């Protein structure tokens, strides 16, 4: 027998919604930092790996938000 599940998720408070939005933004920033760290490690290690054109826009927008240059 399947477990009972409510038809609709309970409504979130404004504080919960803002916290979730903040955490999602923080997760995106951490993903980009991890990506940049891996790419820079590969470049400095001399593996010949470079930032692909598909990610260049994301990297540039992240760098702009951090006042960095790519």
Mean pLDDT across all amino acids: 77
Strand content: under 5%
Give the tally of β-strands. 0
Count structural domains. 1
Q: Provide the gyration radius in Å.
A: 19 Å
Outline the biggest β-sheet: none
Written as H for each helix and E for each strand, in order along the chain, the element string is HH
Give the end-to-end Cα distance, rounded to a whole number of Å. Answer: 56 Å
Decide which structural class fits the backbone.
mainly alpha
Q: What is the general shape? A: elongated
Relative helix content: 55-70%
- Number of helices in the DSSP assignment: 2
> Any low-confidence stretches, pLDDT <50, length ≥5?
none
What is the strand and helix layout of this fold?
Elements: H1 14-45, H2 53-65
């Amino acid at each position: 027998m399947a477990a009972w599940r409510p038809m609709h998720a309970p409504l979130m408070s404004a504080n919960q919604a803002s916290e979730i939005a903040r955490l999602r933004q923080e997760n995106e920033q951490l993903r980009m930092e991890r990506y940049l760290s891996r790419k820079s490690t590969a470049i400095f290690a001399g593996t010949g790996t470079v930032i692909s054109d598909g990610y260049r826009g994301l990297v540039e927008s992240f760098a702009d938000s951090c006042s960095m240059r790519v």
